[in-house]
Design brief:
The complex is a heterodimer of chains A (362) and B (313). Chain A is mainly α and 362 residues long. Chain A is 72% helix and 4% strand. Chain A contains 15 helices and two strands. Chain A has helices spanning 15-39, 44-56, 59-83, 92-109, 114-132, 134-143, 147-169, 202-217, 219-229, 231-236, 241-268, 279-290, 294-314, 322-343, 352-361; strands at residues 3-9, 344-350. A two-stranded antiparallel ribbon of chain A has the order 1-2. Chain A is globular, with a radius of gyration of 23 Å. With 313 residues, chain B is mostly helical. Chain B is globular. Classes of the chains: A mainly alpha (362), B mainly alpha (313). The interface between A and B is large, with 50 and 51 residues.
Chain lengths: 362, 313
C-alpha cells in the first residue's frame, strides 16, 4: 500500500499540547547546542553538571541567580504584556537603559527628603521607559508602523545616550573607572538574610501576581486579550483598540524602565554603558517561550536566569558570553518550530487508489 | 563645497553594506517572506569574510565565502518558514539573535587579526577628472559601484520587466492565485529567501573589507535593522532602497566628518544620529499617507509574512 504523509491543520489547538511541544522545541534546541559543544571538543555533560553545581548547590550561586532574575523577569513581563496584544516590544533593552539613566539623574542630583528619594527614582524611571516607547507605540497604533523595527532602532540611541552621560556629562572625576557616573546615594535595602541579593527581587513577582489577577478576572485584561485574538472583533465590540494599544505598550515601557531603576539602585549602583548585559533580549526570549501565560513567564525567567548564570560560571571553560545569544537563537527557532507542530497533525493519507477501494468496501 | 564632497565620498562606502542587505531583504519580501534576521545574517557574512580575508589576498574570494555561508543560514531560515511554515517573526528574530551571537563567538579572540585582503578604490577614467564631484563619486571600490548600479538595475529589470519577475511579485502578493496558474510558490520562496540572505552576507563582508577594514565584536551595530527600515521607507522599490541606504551612510559619515573637523558636537550625539534619522525615515511613508489621501498607506506585498498552505486555498 502506498501512503504519503500530509499535514492537516488542527481546528482546536490544545493548550497543554502546545505548551508541551514548545518545551520540546526548547529541549531539542538545547540538545543541538550540546551536540555542537561536543563537536568543538567540550563535554556538554560536565558543563551541565558544573552549571547545576554552581547555581543550585551553592548559596552564593542561588543569590547571584536571583540578581539576574530581577531584571530578566521584569523585562519579560514588560514584553509579555505587549505580546498579549500581538505587539512586539523588542526595545525593552533601550527602555531599561533609559530607566536606569533617569534614576541616576535623580540619584545624583536629589536634594529633597531622603525617604522619598527611592520612590521618586522609581516613578521617574518608569516614566522614562514609558516615554521611550511612546513614539513606536503611537506609530504602531495610529499609523500601523512595524513596532519591531522602531523599538529596536531606539535601543541603539539609548545605549549612546547612556554612554554619553556616563563618559562625559555625569562622569565621576574621582572614580577609578573612567566610564561611569558617581555612585547613587540611595540604594535599595538588601533582601533579608542575604548579602548579595536586593529587595528589588520581589517587585517583578508582585507585578506577575498583579498580571495574573488582571488577565484572569478583570474586564481590562479580557479586552486586551480580545484585541490580541482579533482586533477587528474588539473594535466592533466597542473597545478603543488604538488607544488601548498605546496604553499597553507604555505600560510595557514603564516596566522595563522600572527594571532599570531596580538594577541601578541595587547591584549596579552607578550608571555605565554596560549596565545591561542583554537583559532586554533575555526578557524577550522568556516572553516568547511563555506564550500567553503569566506563570509561564515566571517559570521561563527562572529557567533563563539559571542558564545565564550557568553561562557566566562556564566562561572559565573557554566559552564566551556570546555563545549565550547563539543558544537563544536556537531556542527561539525551537519554539517557532514547536509551535507549528502544535497546530498541525501528520496524517498518513492513503493514496487515491486504496482510498477508493476502501470506500467501495464500506 | 569640499565639505559636501568629503561627506559624499565617505557616505558611499558607509552605505554599501546596508544597501546590499536592504536589496536582499527587498527580494525576500517580494516573495512574501519577512526575514527579520538581517542583523544576524550581516554579522555572519562579516565574520566569515573576515576569517577568509585574514588568510587570502583576494577580497572577492572572501566576499563570496561570506555570501555563501550566509546563504546557508538563509536556507535554514527559509526551510523553517517556507517548508515547515514556522512563525516568520520568531524564526527571523532567532536568526538575528543567533547570528550575532555565533559571529561574536567565532570572531572572539581574533579581533586584532590583520586583513590580508580589502577592497580598494578603483578610479573610473575620465569621470574621476570632473572637479569636486569626480573623485567623490568615481574613486570607490567595485562593491560600492555594484551596490548603486548593477544591483538595483538588475533587481528592477527582473522584477518589473520579466515574466519571472511578475511571478515573483505574484507569489508575494497572492500565492494562491500564483499557485493556481502553475507558479511554483515554495521553490520561489525558498530560492529568493536564500538569495536575499546571500546579498546580506555580501553586505556584511563589505562592511569588514571595504568600510571598517577590521573586525570587532558587535560591529554590525544595527545596520541590519536599518536595512529592514529602509525597505519599508523605499516602499519595496529597488532604486529607492539604495538611496535610503545612502541617507543612512551620509548620517554616519557626517559623524566622522564632524569629529575630524572638530565641530564640537559630542561624538555620542553624532553616533545616534543615523538611527534617529532611520526612525524618522520609517515614519515618513505612513505619515504622508495620513496627510494626503492620494498616497497609499502601504505598498507592502499582500502576503508578506503569511505562510502559504495549498490545502487551504
Amino acid at each position: 500500500m502506498i501512503s504519503t504523509i500530509r499535514f492537516e491543520r488542527r481546528i482546536n489547538v490544545d493548550p497543554r499540547r502546545a505548551a508541551l511541544l514548545r518545551v520540546a522545541g526548547v529541549v531539542g534546541a538545547l540538545l543541538l547546542a550540546g551536540l555542537l559543544l561536543a563537536l568543538t571538543g567540550r563535554n556538554p555533560f560536565s558543563l551541565l553538571w558544573k552549571s547545576i553545581d554552581g547555581t543550585f548547590l551553592e548559596r552564593q550561586g542561588l543569590e547571584e541567580t536571583g540578581l539576574l532574575l530581577t531584571p530578566i523577569l521584569m523585562n519579560a513581563l514588560a514584553v509579555h504584556v505587549a505580546m498579549r496584544m500581538k505587539a512586539w516590544n523588542i526595545g525593552s533593552e533601550g527602555q531599561f537603559f533609559m530607566g536606569a539613566w533617569a534614576a541616576t539623574g535623580i540619584g545624583i542630583h536629589w536634594a529633597g527628603p531622603r525617604a522619598l528619594e527611592l520612590v521618586v527614582m522609581a516613578v521617574v524611571a518608569a516614566a522614562a521607559g514609558a516615554l521611550w516607547i511612546a513614539v513606536p507605540a503611537l506609530a504602531r497604533a495610529y499609523w500601523n508602523v512595524n513596532e519591531i523595527i522602531t523599538t529596536l532602532l531606539l535601543n541603539f540611541v539609548a545605549v549612546q545616550i547612556v554612554a554619553w552621560f556616563s563618559f562625559e556629562i555625569w562622569r565621576d572625576e574621582e572614580a577609578s573607572i573612567i566610564q561611569s557616573t558617581p555612585v547613587v546615594k540611595a540604594l535599595l535595602p538588601l533582601f533579608p538574610g542575604s548579602n548579595t541579593l536586593y529587595i528589588g527581587v520581589v517587585v517583578p513577582f508582585i507585578v506577575a501576581a498583579a498580571f495574573f489577577v488582571v488577565f484572569r478576572s478583570s474586564r481590562w485584561g479580557y479586552e486586551v486579550d480580545m484585541i490580541g485574538g482579533n482586533p477587528r472583533a474588539a473594535e466592533f465590540a466597542g473597545i478603543r483598540v488604538k488607544r488601548r494599544m498605546v496604553v499597553v505598550l507604555m505600560i510595557s515601557g514603564a516596566l522595563a524602565g522600572l527594571a532599570g531603576m531596580l538594577h541601578l539602585a541595587g547591584p549596579a549602583k552607578r550608571l555605565t554603558s554596560s549596565i545591561s548585559t542583554s537583559y532586554g533580549l533575555s526578557g524577550f526570549i522568556v516572553a516568547a517561550l511563555a506564550g500567553n501565560s503569566v506563570v509561564g513567564v515566571v517559570v521561563g525567567a527562572v529557567f533563563i536566569a539559571t542558564m545565564l548564570h550557568a553561562g557566566i560560571t562556564l566562561q572559565s571553560d573557554g566559552l564566551s558570553v556570546y555563545i549565550v545569544a547563539g543558544v537563544y537563537g536556537l531556542v527561539l527557532l525551537g519554539i517557532a518550530i514547536g509551535e507549528v507542530a502544535a497546530r498541525f497533525r501528520m496524517v498518513r493519507a492513503a493514496s487515491v487508489d486504496t482510498a477508493g477501494r476502501a470506500a467501495v468496501a464500506s | 563645497m569640499s565639505l559636501v564632497f568629503d561627506i559624499i565620498e565617505q557616505a558611499l562606502p558607509a552605505s554599501a553594506a546596508v544597501g546590499l542587505a536592504a536589496s536582499g531583504e527587498l527580494v525576500t519580501e517580494r516573495v512574501g517572506v519577512l526575514n527579520l534576521g538581517q542583523e544576524g545574517l550581516m554579522s555572519i557574512g562579516a565574520v566569515s569574510a573576515f576569517m577568509v580575508g585574514t588568510n587570502t589576498a583576494n577580497p572577492f574570494l572572501a566576499l563570496a565565502v561570506g555570501a555563501l555561508v550566509t546563504a546557508a543560514l538563509g536556507l535554514v531560515f527559509a526551510a523553517s518558514v517556507v517548508v515547515l511554515r514556522a512563525n516568520q517573526v520568531l524564526a527571523g528574530l532567532a536568526v538575528a539573535l543567533g547570528g550575532v551571537g555565533l559571529a561574536n563567538q567565532l570572531g572572539n579572540g581574533r579581533q586584532g587579526d590583520l586583513l590580508r585582503s580589502r577592497f580598494r578604490p578603483v578610479e573610473i577614467p575620465g569621470l574621476v577628472e570632473i572637479p569636486g564631484i569626480g573623485p567623490a563619486l568615481f574613486n570607490q571600490d567595485p562593491v560600492v559601484y555594484a551596490t548603486f548600479t548593477v544591483v538595483p538595475v538588475v533587481l528592477w529589470f527582473v522584477l518589473f520587466r520579466t515574466r519571472h519577475g511578475m511571478n515573483i511579485r505574484a507569489v508575494g502578493e497572492n500565492p494562491a492565485a500564483a499557485d493556481a496558474v502553475g507558479v511554483r510558490v515554495t521553490a520561489l520562496r525558498l530560492g529568493y529567501t536564500t538569495l536575499g540572505a546571500a546579498l546580506s552576507g555580501a553586505g556584511g563582508a563589505h562592511l569588514v573589507m571595504g568600510y571598517t577594514q577590521n573586525w570587532s565584536i558587535g560591529m554590525v551595530s544595527g545596520a541590519g535593522w536599518v536595512a529592514l527600515a529602509v525597505v519599508i521607507f523605499a516602499a519595496w522599490r529597488p532604486y529607492v532602497v539604495v538611496l535610503g541606504a545612502l541617507l543612512f551612510g551620509t548620517m554616519r559619515s557626517l559623524g566622522f566628518v564632524a569629529q575630524a573637523r572638530n565641530w564640537g558636537i559630542s561624538s555620542f550625539a553624532l553616533s545616534m544620529l543615523p538611527y534617529v534619522v532611520t526612525l524618522v525615515l520609517i515614519l515618513i511613508p505612513a505619515g504622508l499617507a495620513r496627510l494626503s489621501s492620494r498616497v497609499r498607506a502601504t505598498s507592502a506585498p499582500g502576503a508578506l509574512g503569511v505562510p502559504y498552505f495549498r490545502e487551504e486555498r
